[in-house]
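Researcher: I need the complex structure. Ligand is FE2/S2 (inorganic) cluster. Inputs:
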Amino acid sequence: MRSIRVCACAESYCRVEVIVYVCICNAVNERSVREAIGRGCRTVGEVYRGCGVRPQCGRCGTDIARFIEQHDDASCEAAWPIAAE
Ligand code: FES
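Model: Output:
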């Protein structure tokens, strides 16, 4: 993954937007990947299709899989909250 700062100023008050690119070959950022997962994509291939791209070098597959796992873990915790004692 690569992060890119959109604003070039170095002012402390500036709210710089940082874009994290998950797939460099296709310029797919983290937000697009998370949106695709949020729409129901549950495999790396589905995320590529959900983002409207095809894998090229495939190096981003591990990162995309990690995002899917994180989403599944969070969904599981939300579905099965720990009972209060
Ligand atoms: S970085 Fe995603 S296909 Fe190359």
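Model: Summary of the prediction. The pocket of FE2/S2 (inorganic) cluster is lined by residues 23-26, 55-60 (CB under 6 Å).
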